[in-house]
Amino acid sequence: MASSYYSLSFSSSLLPSPLPQDSHYHHRSKHTTAANHPIPRVLFRCATGSSNSSVAVPKKRHWKEGEYPGYSQTPRRSNRSPIKNIKKKLDRHNNAKAWVPTVTEDLTDRIQKKQWLQALEVFEMLREQPFYQPKEGTYMKLIVLLGKCGQPKGARQLFDKMIEEGLEPTSELYTALLAAYCRSNIIHEAFSILDQMKTLPHCQPDVFTFSILIKACVDASRFELVESLYEQMAERSIVPNTVTQNIALNGYGKAGKFEQMEKVLMGMLESTTCRPDVWTMNTILGLFGNKGHIEMMERWYEKFRNFGIEPETRTFNILIGAYGKKRMYDKMSTVMEYMRKLSFPWTTSTYNNVIEAFADAGDAKNMEYTFDQMRAEGMKADTKTFCCLIRGYANAGLFHKVIGSVQLAGKLEIPENTSFHNAVLFACAKAEDLMEMERVFTRLKEKQCLPDSTTYSVMIDAYKQEGMSDKVYDLEQQKQMMTANGHNGSEGIEMESLVDS
């Protein structure tokens, strides 16, 4: 299984698209020629009316100069070409007007595809043009993009460049910059930005700013900072909203702090300003479902329904995933039938949960059947789909099908993130192919994916089985360094709803 099987290639062009020949000027030139145009009837009447008078009556002007071609006493040659320098200026003007939307569309496309390096190159190309003035919204999108791609220093440089160019910062822009550091778990720098915002009258932190910081703190298990942030919000009379409380619920639940979680939840149930919603429901169900507490999950499902909260597709997907992990296939099927009955569509996540259930059990036959049905219904597979397939085939001992899945992922241009490489590493370890495992690990770093705790755990276990203590020691040192740098590899809830505009 060569690592080249799952390489991706990207191609792009920053050149403006070719322009058609401009016909507007030639159109005007043709019809301004007297030889090709009859004398207007109104002008003809004026001329005949003045012939009976000895005093010359000046001709009445019916059109402003340049508005209508009229009649010229010195006819132009019909085949005369436009003046050369004017034609060049018109072409240059039209080329510039057409070039700007082409490149700005390319910039938008790069941002949507999360190609941060290419997006910055296009942006720099635009900034060099005298007719282009970047706006606040463009900087916002780029800062958010750099934050998502783990480039907080690049986000800071772009932010500083924006200030140098005279654009006034806003609370939203500072919040986006703060979020970029939070995504990379650089919490001390995020708090520094918060302190800076407090000194600026027009950039004061709001509930979204504090919500992002609270999420970063709960992800890092810095719960003492969470309490401090709540106190700061109270001092500023900022009331936590439902999003803030959902973040705290999720953090407390993942850390096993059920007492604090219940306290927050009870406060939401009694509140008039931040009532629980379907996200609260999904958070609680997901926490109990992931821990295998099926009865608690079902009990809270009924409580939320009685509270008047209606489930959504994601709610049912959480239930399916929880039942699948416990191999309760009858209940899993019941939920899927219930979704059909209520006209809730089966999504990629629905199929992924079913595929994952069979993959964990090493049931390759049912896993393949579910995947084939997924593709037959036109549902697009994603990275998690192939992670589950690779792990499933590895659990079933079908390593030749692992290779086939990796090749298919390459053909479908499935993004190769850390989770994808971890699945391939798991398959290599299962096959006891340590040489290939090392090649995949090298490939992971070449693709600029950060190893996480799962990466090191899989490799350390594989080396331990072979008694390779020196390799185990090196990887444990790397893992400790990763933890010290704050890269814990956790993939928490996305913050798009908090910072994206």
In summary, what is this structure?
The chain is an all-alpha fold and 501 residues long.
Describe the structure in your own words.
Residues 71-82 have a biased composition (Polar residues). There is one protein chain. By secondary structure, the protein is mostly helical. The protein has a domain at 25-82. The protein is 65% helix and 0% strand. It contains 25 helices and no strands. It has helices at residues 24-31, 41-49, 84-112, 116-127, 136-148, 152-164, 171-183, 187-198, 207-219, 223-235, 242-254, 258-270, 278-290, 294-306, 313-325, 329-341, 348-360, 364-376, 383-395, 399-411, 418-430, 434-446, 453-465, 469-484, 496-499. α6 packs antiparallel against α7 (171-183) and α9 runs parallel beside α11 (242-254). The longest helix is centred in the N-terminal third of the chain and has 29 residues, at 84-112. The radius of gyration is 33 Å and the shape is globular. It starts with 23 loop residues before the first helix and ends with a helix. Residues 1-55, 61-78, 96-100 and 489-501 have low confidence and may be disordered.
